[in-house]
């Protein structure tokens, strides 16, 4: 038995989260509450079951299996759910399914081993994402130690809001670190994510202590941080404080909205929008103009 932790998904054959073909481990838990979050089910470290209304045929098998006698619409009685999973076992259409599950680190390691040939042939490896992987430091440490010993390349995607010294051993095992810079203004960062950005900016600066390749990612969200001056200020910070880093600008996408429905949460879909390709090209030109190299894994 290894260390247990909570994951949302183990996604093989990923090509957007680092070099080559990768397996992405989406770990649950996050200290931020981004208003546009694409994985709202992963905000907490606990088992979670989703209900997809569009898949439900109303057969009632979930009701029969539930020890708490919850009705078909799980979201109306979600506070009663003990996440035993019995409903997921009997649902014929997948309308009830695990969105967060508890796993053993040894099981994750055995699963990623199955694709070692693809890692070797493509220069790929394992990427830890989320949620926020640093929100489970012991689980992350155990996973990275075991995978490091296997010789697989590793990368991490992080919001940057963590205790650097506590997570540093895991970070030192990474070949590449992606860290988000959601907004350079502390007050606006708190408005949209729930926390100020000073700790994140300090941690970005400390990435200089590591030998990993560094990519500072900006999720470009219309009406939030898509202004030319905002991107210029962010780029100047990266150029000054993390000169070895590259940057990646990622246009906002609404792909996570179905997950809000599955957990009975709401999102203001009209509050944010995806910047036009022309606008993204202009922002990328600003990054280059400020002397920072761009990279694109999308």
From TrEMBL:
Record domain Radical SAM core: where: 16-289
Keyword line: 4Fe-4S, Iron, Iron-sulfur, Metal-binding, Oxidoreductase, S-adenosyl-L-methionine
Molecular function GO terms recorded: oxidoreductase activity
Cofactor(s) annotated in UniProt: [4Fe-4S] cluster
Broad EC category: oxidoreductase
Pfam families membership: Fer4, Radical_SAM
All copies of domain 4Fe-4S ferredoxin-type, residue ranges: 47-69, 70-101
Family, per entry: Belongs to the organic radical-activating enzymes family.
Protein name (database record): Glycyl-radical enzyme activating protein
Organism field: Aedoeadaptatus acetigenes
């Amino acid at each position: 038995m290894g260390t247990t932790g909570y994951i949302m998904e183990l996604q093989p054959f990923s090509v957007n989260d680092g070099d080559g073909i990768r397996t992405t481990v989406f770990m649950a838990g996050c200290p931020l509450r981004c208003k546009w979050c694409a994985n709202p089910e992963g905000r907490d470290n606990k088992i979670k079951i989703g209900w997809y209304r569009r898949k439900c045929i109303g057969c009632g098998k979930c009701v029969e299996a539930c020890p708490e006698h919850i009705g078909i619409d799980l979201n109306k009685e979600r506070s009663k759910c003990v996440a035993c999973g019995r409903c997921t076992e009997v649902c014929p259409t997948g309308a009830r399914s695990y969105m967060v599950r508890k796993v053993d680190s040894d099981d994750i390691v055995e699963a990623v081993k199955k694709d070692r040939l693809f890692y070797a042939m493509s220069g790929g490896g394992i990427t830890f994402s989320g949620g926020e992987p640093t929100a489970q430091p012991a689980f992350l440490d155990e996973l990275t130690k075991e995978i490091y010993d296997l010789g697989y390349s590793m990368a991490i995607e992080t919001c940057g809001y963590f205790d650097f010294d506590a997570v540093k051993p895991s970070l030192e095992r990474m070949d590449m670190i992606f860290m988000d810079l959601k907004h350079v203004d502390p007050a606006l960062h708190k408005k949209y994510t729930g926390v100020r950005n000073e700790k994140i900016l300090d941690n970005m600066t400390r990435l200089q202590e590591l030998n990993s390749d560094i990519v500072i990612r900006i999720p470009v969200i219309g009406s939030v941080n898509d202004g030319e001056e905002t991107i210029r200020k962010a780029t100047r910070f990266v150029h000054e404080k993390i000169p070895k880093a590259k940057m990646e600008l990622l246009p906002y996408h609404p792909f996570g909205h179905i997950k809000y429905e599955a957990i009975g949460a709401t999102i203001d879909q009209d509050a944010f929008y995806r910047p036009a390709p022309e606008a993204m090209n202009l922002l990328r030109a600003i990054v280059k103009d400020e002397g920072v190299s761009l990279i694109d894994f999308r």
